[in-house]
Amino acid sequence: MLLRSSLKEFCSEISDIPIIALAQEPDHGFAVELVKLGVSAYFIFPDEHRKIRDQLSLLYNDWQARKQKERFVEIQQEAYDFRSIIGTSASLKQTIERAQKVIKNNARTVLITGETGTGKELFARAIHYNSANRNSPFVDIACTTLSETLLESELFGYEKGAFTDAKERK
Q1: Which long-range contacts (CB under 8 A, 24 or more apart) does 21-25 make?
Q2: Residues 72, 125: contact at Cβ < 8 Å?
Q3: How far apart, in whole angstroms, are the C-alpha atoms of residue 53 and residue 84?
Q4: Kindly report the CA angle at 146 between 141 and 147, in degrees rounded to 5?
Q5: Is the distance from CB of 80 to CB of 123 less than 8 angstroms?
Q6: In this model, does residue 68 exceed pLDDT 90?
Q7: Is-contact 131 122, C-beta < 8 A?
Q8: Mean local confidence (pLDDT), 101-116
Q9: 4 touches 37 (CB < 8 A)
Q10: Between 149 and 70, where is the model more confident?
């Protein structure tokens, strides 16, 4: 019981670091309990030493990729901060206020229109990297480069068989 509460507390405190449990003898019930508590993997030592090495390598690579992604998002968030948008006009201030409202409302899709060179992509990235969706991929679609039918299928998807190459639902 003490092990269970200590392990649960330990796993919750360091949730971003994978934990591997090793045992000398198999105990499936205990293994299931460990996984429920947050342990990433359970192995019998020394019987499964190759699996342990492979799992450690896999977990390390996953952890490293996650850390790189987190750092990338931090850099993007710094680069596309609303304070870096320079200007004093009333319309720019109003546009910034609207963009910040979009962030507060957790909008997942935003259509930004405007003349060439007005900063549409800058606003799109500022909205994305300052929102709750910042860890999701940023998808930038230059609508003017797509035909009307392609734009429609990219924005709204399509059903299998809707046209010749529609082999699956998107």
Answers
A1: 22/52
A2: no
A3: 46
A4: 150
A5: no
A6: yes
A7: no
A8: 84
A9: yes
A10: 70
Confidence of residue 69 (pLDDT cuts 50, 70, 90): very high
DSSP codes joined into one string, the chain: -HHHHHHHHHHHHTTTS--EEEESS--HHHHHHHHHHT-SEEEETTTTHHHHHHHHHHHHHHHHHHHHHHHHHHHHHHHT-GGG-----HHHHHHHHHHHHHHHTT-S-------TTS-HHHHHHHHHHTSTTTTSPP----GGGS-HHHHHHHHH---TTSSTT--S--
Give the type of residue at 144: T
Give the amino acid at 160. K
Tokens for 84, please give them.
Answer: 């870096």
Is residue 126 within 8 Å of 99, Cβ to Cβ?
Answer: yes
Alpha-carbon span 142 to 70, nearest angstrom: 26
Predicted confidence band of residue 90 (pLDDT cuts 50, 70, 90): very high
Alpha-carbon distances of 107 from 56, 123, 154, rounded to whole Å: 38, 14, 18
